[in-house]
Structure prediction request, 388 residues.
Amino acid sequence: MALRELSSLEKSLGLKKPNKYSTQGERKVPVLQNSNGPSLTGLVTIAVHLVQDAKRPELLGVSAEQRAVVQQWLEFRVTKLDDCPREEVKNVLKDLNQYLEDKVYLAGNDFTLADTLMYYGIHHIMVDLAVQEKEKYVNLSRWFDHVQHYPGVRHHLPPVVVLRNRFYTSSHH
Amino acid sequence: MKLFISEGNPHCVKVLAAVKLTGVKCDISHVDHEERVVPYLSRPTLPVLLLPSGTHLFTPNAICQYFFEVSGQEANSLCNQWLEWEGTELQPALAQALHLSVLQGKAPEAARALQGPLSFLEQSLSKKGTQFLTAEEVKVADIILWAALYPFMSDSNFMPGDLPQVRRWFERVGLLEACQAASQTVINGKGAALKTFLQKQPVPHSQRRDPQPCN
Prediction:
């Protein structure tokens, strides 16, 4: 799972030489094998390293504040969203939906690594949402649709149909 | 900027120590565990840093990193790795251990819950051979791990087995004035507040979580 994400991220960053990975422990935490240095462990740690390697620092945020926001949602992805207990999933969706009410992307108007990793992590939940639920989480669905159409992001994941036309399903005559 | 903290919450030790150590100017506001500071989160969450732009930061590690960054110390991959380990490996074990020891009075079981992460820390410290986790100086990772482990490592009754490196490292970080002041403000002599904080947390899942997505 995490390894496929990292390989998609490598492609979207245009990194030519694929890295070598392994996994560690029962949670299959990704490990990046590095020929000229110590290995790196953890999805976020490796993803941040890949972005730096690709010389795309703007994807980590362009100011100290934006970098903190990106870091926060990356942390949210691996601590709150991953392995989320079933009864908690609705709260996570609700919070994200509320947060995204006045934002295009997680860090505001700019697309960042936080969007890519949150998209990869939430895809399996969005696939299973019924149409009415997608309507309920309208801001989250809008964000999800933006990100899945963002150039180069989707890769290993199938597209999810998100209705963009709200009144289409809520008309009652 | 305004930092919201509550008594008894170990995560607040992290941010308070970081703010004192970096000297970043910030108003500190003590609030109740139940206070909903971040309008878009359904569950009360602390600590929270409210930035002048109106942005809320609500994860303790991102707040600490922010304090270090604005004071001119950028995190590196090694630090990031420790922060991710703290959030994904240490915190679930800590949540379980705190629940066992503080709410159920089962100290030996709590020590057992922490055995895995603590021996990983012991091995890493002895392999690295530096005074602190990533270097000869204190970095953000030291502050975060120290504060996370404080409720256990500062307790003389806590017997997690032989951990000489962890103990030495813990004492070294604890000598910092910023750390002493932070633990004094949030945790020391505030057992009742810690208990209230834990009672408000969701009951930790005792079984190891399934690596597959849960739906």
